[in-house]
Task: structure prediction
Amino acid sequence: MKNQVGSRLDGAGVVWRKSSYSGAQGDCVDVARFDDVAAIRDSKDPRGPVLAFEATTWDVFVADVKRGGFPSV
Result:
């Protein structure tokens, strides 16, 4: 999946989103959705590494977070 995602991210048209809950200090991640992939990167290092997940896997993770499935430590 890495090569597929890398080549897509290099192309034009990839839109990265930052959560509206992001802190002013940049302590957040950016997410780009395309095809069947969710790409995640550190907002402080936009040219750095990118994690890629199947979109359905990312959706399940986000739903679990919203339900409180990952209480703060």
The mean pLDDT is 81. Helices lie at 2-10, 55-66. Strands lie at 17-18, 29-34, 37-42, 50-54.
